[in-house]
Structures are given as structure tokens and as C-alpha cells.
Amino acid sequence: MKLPALYALVLALAPGGLANAYDERLDITPLTGEHWLVSFDFNLSSAVSHHHQLFPRVLEGVLASSNASELHLRFGQGYWDADNWGLTPNNGANVAGTGVELWARIAADSYPDAEASWFSLANSLSGMFCASLNFIDSAHTTSPKSVLGAFDTNHSLYLFHGSLPSEPVCTENLTPYLKLLPCKGAAGVSSLLDGHHLFESQWQSMSIDLSVEDGRLHLRQSIYAVLHVDRTLERRINPVPEPEPYEAVKCDSSRDYSNPQNGICYPRIPGIGEINVTLSDLFGSPIKNGACLSKITSKSPQICLHIPSDNWSVTASDELSPAIKSVDQICYVIPPDSDFDLSIHSETRESVLPKTPSPILASRHLVGWGQERGGFHSVYKSTSGDSPVSFVTYEVLPWFMRVYLHSFTYTLFDSAGAEVATGSFSASNVSSDIAQLLYYKPAQPRVSPSHIEMLLTIPAGSKLVTMYQFEKSLLYYNEYPPDANRGFDISPAIVEVLTDSSSPRAVFRTTSSLLSLPTPDFSMPYNVIILTSTVIALAFGTIFNLVTRTFVYAEDLPKQSLAKKLRAKLSKITSMFS
Amino acid sequence: MRMLLFSWLVFAWVAVAATRSHTNNWAVIVCTSRFWFNYRHVANALSMYRTVKRLGIPDSQILLLLADDIACNPRNAFPGTVYNNADRALDLYGESVEVDYRGYDVTVENFIRLLTDRFDPDTPRSKRLLTDDRSNIFIYMTGHGGNEFLKFQDAEEISAHDIADAFAQMYEKRRYNEIFFMIDTCQANTMYSHFYSPNILAVGSSELDESSYSHHADIDIGVAVIDRFTYYNLEFLENVSRTSNLTLADLFNSYDSEEIASHPGIRTDLYQRDLSDVLITDFFGNVQEVEIDSSKPRGLLSLLNQQIKQAK
């Protein structure tokens, strides 16, 4: 009797203490003069209990019904320019590829049980997040062997992964996503999140990571977006982009022929020079009052700008002084009692912090021509100058791409672009120190996809190209989607860079690919039906005539006089009455 | 004794049935068209979604089926928005929208399954029409159609017979109190011609051999933004509030076939009530009426069972 009372007392005295810990933050990092990365992070840790103060009850229900100990959901659109922007935030751990992706670790006695729970999990999430996750069936499901945390697998836990690269991401996905937050997006940094601004960005990623550890539920939600600052600012003045009048065009005075007075103007490259912007300019509103937050957590939300402090100046509303100020960042604690806005100013906005380079740059594209065969061509470039980089790649191909195992080859180029090594790495030749096929599971038509995992190592400064060929299958007539001529989206490959076990792996995804399959002319069956019906009708009519009539020459007919004919008719009539 | 009880039961049931009204409202809003140039069909569906949401039906009781992603389509110059007017005053997508079926999930099969509630056991509640015999359902469909059919996604079509049979099954399963069926497509009136179940009121935008036209285009979006029939419906419905006394007769009288450029049809022969008594909010709003369970036939049945046990 005493214990529950004590528990209740603890709950009452320590909001956000033992039972729940919640914090949220916003980071703004200019990647270039015109592209700014905004990162929203929401972290909730909650004791497993039947009282749900903060933890969304729906998610716990999903975890309980599917026996999942871990759940990861990703929504992403757009292109992350790794060349210019470096590595994705947080080493890519919470970053989405194109489309919708789901993976989960499920506890079950046997594989079929685990698989059944997995499908039911995908279905319930489809209702919750307004995405067609119910399309994740066995033909979209794999069990990763060496990526996505598969290496620390426990034997009674099954890891499943499925992705839908053609799923759009829009407001209907953001709405339920924000409803999981303690303040439902009404207060704190999440009050800046609004579909109109988020989905205008160049690249955006939404993630949910849910895990049960040490009797506590951990929920991490992250939204990353790369805003095109100039376009966002222009949209406020000019909703429809229009060419600037000549007087407003900023000329590049560094060109020696530049003479704007006489009409000689070379437009200045965007993203350099002065910028003056507020949070409300970027997101449509200031950060709304955090009173809801102060009730649930003792930690006030934080907003940090990652900028070189000598070229940039930041002013907060109400002359609030920053909590942290250093050479490369400036942070504010958002006051709980009033709205909060920031004004960011720089004379030289192109001076940004050096980016964290991605250890490798990867791109993958479809090659080949024709309706029958094709190939996948992946290029991996090492950016580090001193040490070799090892990484694993994980690719899932739909069953209608029939991969030729013998066609797996690689070519290594040195930093000067000269070919250094080439070879094949089918299952029989796994011992190459450059390319190894770690895992290969061929597709089963309509049942399971192809699943390929490779371990690749590139010497410093080199470039590695891997290639394989595949054959395109024909689908059944009713398996083609309504827009079959657009092509079929192929999931991005996941690349994880191996490091020594102490530091987290850098993860990124290639772009998704669009495969064009031989598509039938969908009106063809009707044309065939009409044509064959016509042919049959013509043939039948002629043959029927031939077999039922007797043809004789007119001159062979016995000649009959009129009187004879009349007599014949008369006898016919009399026979009817007799 | 049993005979007496039985007749009492029948009498009580009839008494309840005679005074019955709806206790909950549901809406099924379907746009069956894929591709960007069919922007107006999504705007049609979202106009109705906005209205039912504004008049109080919660998202959990609205099933929205959109066959394509228009708001975040790369061709949309205004990401995250769908407008139904070139003045772009009203963003129908708004800040909070729940699309229950989207993209390839919008199929004839799923639509019939939704109406008749025949589903895989894993189907989440948010994708189901969880109605009972006291539910008023507003069903709105829009897309490209013809004589007695409506195309789904350019790939398949639903016929007037299919919908009529699905409604009949719903009636048998006591899944509705009244249905208000509205359809905006070419030759729309043919779509309700085969209905045969009671308590269904149907409205279509155009007669047999008559097209339904779009209202106007937005040159910045580049396509037509709304169809005429829905535009004038929405114009009327925007003046309806939750407490409004406007009736469906008022709505139907507002139709002007000159403006709509086609002849809207109204089918009332299956419907019991006089249209001038039917509030618009009976279908577009959410009226909660609480009733005590004992007056229900189910309570009587258990009473009957008790009596039988005692008699034994």
C-alpha cells in the first residue's frame, strides 16, 4: 500500500525526473551561403509503466502487440549534396533515404511468428502515419546481416527491413508525427514545423527511433531539412517566383567588364554577401511560448547556431543573452514565458564553418539500354588522403530485377584516374581484399527480393567502381501499377563506413533509381479481342454459308414455265389444308 | 407467455425504429484520379474534407482517399498546399490533414472493402469505416467517369452496380442509418441509378451524356483547380455553421444548372424524410446524441432470455 503512494509522490514532486526525461533542441548550420541545414531533435525517455504522461500511448501499443524491442521509421525526400555539404547530421544515424523506410527488431519463438508480427507492425504503422506501409510484404522484406545494427543481434530477436522508395512524404505524414510530441507541435521548437516550409526545402528527412532498454522506453524524433534561404525569403515577398527587374539584379563587380550603368551586368553568384534573416522569415512564425514544456521537463529547449562568430552576429528577442558563445557556435535557452525569435546577420554569409567531409562519396546509377537487360554501376570515391576506407553496402532489389551473380565485377582507379586493379567477386571468390560479397540471397519471383551485401575497401584517394548486370522480368498484366510507364523505383543502397568499434559508423544512402521495365500496351487485350472477334465473325460467316447452302450454276437449274410454278404453289397450299 | 413477450419485443423495436435518428457521423471522401493534371479532383475531395472537418466530424471518422500526391508533387509551385481557387485564399491541405488511403492504395477493391468492412485482420482502425445502424454516412466521390462507371487511377473502374450492391450489403449488415451519396464526375447521375437499398439520398453533378466541367484554372499552378458542381456546393456550404438550420433542400435549391453547366440530379425515392426537414449538419456535421442502452433492442433480448430461463 505504501509503495504506490510513494511512487505517486515521486511522480508528483519530480515532473520530468525519474519517470520521464524529455529534451528538445534546434540546430541551424549554414552549409553554404544559400543552403542552411536545420535539425530538430526531440528526445524522450520514459519508464515503462501503465501511466503515460508523455510517452505516446499508441506507440507503446504498437511495440507491445508486435513484440518489437526496436523500431525505426524514416521518411525522406530530396537530394543531399554530399560533395558540397559533407556528411549528413549525426553521422547519418537518423537520416532517411528517398521514400519511406522501416526496420524493427522483433522477439519471437520462430521466424514465421516474427514475420507475422512484422507484417502486422507495418500495417498498424500505415494507419498511424498515413503512409502505405501496408505494401511492405514478403517481396519487400529482408533481414540485414551486417548493417543497421545487425551485428549485435541476439538469437531470439529477428531484424526485418523494408522500404518503399516511391512513397511521397507530405503534410499528412508530418501531422501524426508532430502529435507524438508532448506538446503536439504547439510549443517549443516544434512550433516552427509546418508543412509549407518543411516541404519546400531542398532535402528533408523525418525519423522515429524507438527502443526499449533497461526497462525504459526511448523515443528519438529528428527532423532535418536543408532550406534554400534565398528562395524561402523570396517566397514571403513574391509567392510566385518571377525574374527580377533589371534594376534589382545584383551585379558581380569583380568582373572587369562589369558596368551596370551602361547595361553590362554579370549577375552575382547567389549565396554570397550580406544576409539578414529572422526565424520567422525562415519558418513563418517565431518559436511559440514554451509553457507547455515547462510543465513536463526541467530542461528548457535550446537553439544553437553553428557559425563562425567573427563573421556573424545574432540577436535574440528581448535582448536575451546567449547561454553558450564560442568561436563556432552560439546557443540560447528559450524562455518559457514568451515567444522567441532570433535575428541572424552576416556581411559575408559565404563564410561558414568547414564541413565534416563524408569518408566516401557514393553514387549508383542504372546503365544499359533496351527492354531486356540492364546493369547497376556504383562509384565510391575516397575523400580521405591518408588511410584506406572499409565499408559495407546493403542493396535490396525487387524480384523483377534478376541479378546475374557471375557479372559482379569491380575496377579500382588510383587518384590520378588510372586503372589499378580489376576483378570479379562472385561467391566463389570471396577472398579479394578490395571487394567481397558478404551475403547474397537471390530473389524469388513475387515472394522475396534480391538481397546483396558487400564489403568494400578503397585505398586512400582512390575510386572504386562496382558493376553487375540483371535481366528484367515481365510482370503479370495486373501487377503493373497505374503509372507503369513512369518506371519502378528502386530503393536506395545503404552504405555504412566501418570504424574501430568505439566510434559510431557513418551511414548514408545513395539516391533511389528509376527502372523502366518493358510495359505492355494496356489497350492491347481489347484490340486483340476486337480483332479476333472480327476475324472469327468473318470466317464463321463464310464457312457457315458454304456448309449450309448448295451452290449450282444458274444454267444448270431446270427451266420451269410459269404455269408449272403456279401449279407447284397451288399444290403446296392445298396440301396445307388437306 | 412467450408469445406475449415476443409481440412486446416487436412493438418496442418498431417504436425505437420509428423515432430513431443518428448518433454518429462518418464521411468517406474519395478522389479516384491520379496525375498532376487532375489537380481539380483532389481539390474537390479536399473541399468536402475541409467542410466536414470544419463542421465537427473528427479525423478519426473521416476516411480520405486520395489517389495521388498533389500537395508535395514536384510540379506544385506551392509545396504543401492545394488550393480550390485562383485567389489562393484557402489552403485546403492546411497544417493538419490525415489521408487514410493514398496512391496505389486507392483501388476499387479497397473501396468496396471499406464500405462492407471486409478486411484483413491486420488492417488498422483508422482505415476502417466503423459504423453502426445509427450512423449517418456522407460519401463523396470524384474522378473521371462515364455511363454507370467511375475510373480509379486510369487502371480500373467501379460500376454503378458495384456501389449499389455494396450499399445493399451495408444495409443488411446494419452499417448505416442514412447515406448521403454525392458524386462529381461526367454523367454522374447514372452512378446512383441502380441503388436499391433504403435510406439513401443521392446527388450527382450531371445527366447521362452530359459532361461535368471544371470551374476555372490558376495560371501559376497551370491546371484547373476545381470542378463547377463542387465549387458551387462549397460556396453554399461555407455559409453553414455547426448550429445552422439550413437544410439539404436549401442546398439543392441553390443549384443553378446555368452556372454548373450541367444538370445536377437528386434521387429521393429511397429516402424517407422530407428534404426540407434534413439539416445539412445531419450529414456534414457531427451530432452526438447519448442514449441509455436499456432502450435498445439488445437490452430487451437479454430480458427475454432471462424470462425464458425463469419460465424453464
Describe the protein.
Chain B: Pathway: Glycolipid biosynthesis; glycosylphosphatidylinositol-anchor biosynthesis. Chain B: It comes from Tortispora caseinolytica NRRL Y-17796. Chain B: This is GPI-anchor transamidase. The complex is a heterodimer of chains A (578) and B (312). Chain A is an alpha+beta fold and 578 residues long. The N and C termini of chain A lie far apart (116 Å). Chain A has three domains: 5-235 and 274-346, no CATH class; 360-515, Sandwich (Immunoglobulin-like); 531-577, no CATH class. Residues 1-17 of chain A have low confidence and may be disordered. Chain A has helices at 2-13, 57-66, 82-85, 111-129, 171-179, 195-198, 229-237, 279-283, 291-296, 524-548, 562-577, and strands spanning 20-30, 35-47, 68-78, 99-107, 141-142, 157-164, 203-213, 216-228, 275-278, 302-305, 312-316, 324-325, 330-333, 342-346, 360-367, 373-382, 389-397, 401-403, 409-413, 419-424, 435-441, 450-458, 463-472, 488-490, 494-497, 506-509, 513-515. Chain A has eleven helices and 27 strands. Chain B has 312 residues and is of the alpha/beta class. Chain B has one domain (22-311): Rossmann fold (3-Layer(aba) Sandwich), CATH 3.40.50.1460. Helices cover 30% and strands 19% of the residues of chain B. Chain B has nine helices and twelve strands. In chain B, the strands form three sheets. Chain B has a seven-stranded mixed beta sheet with strand order 3-2-1-4-8-9-12. The longest helix of chain B has 18 residues, at 2-19.
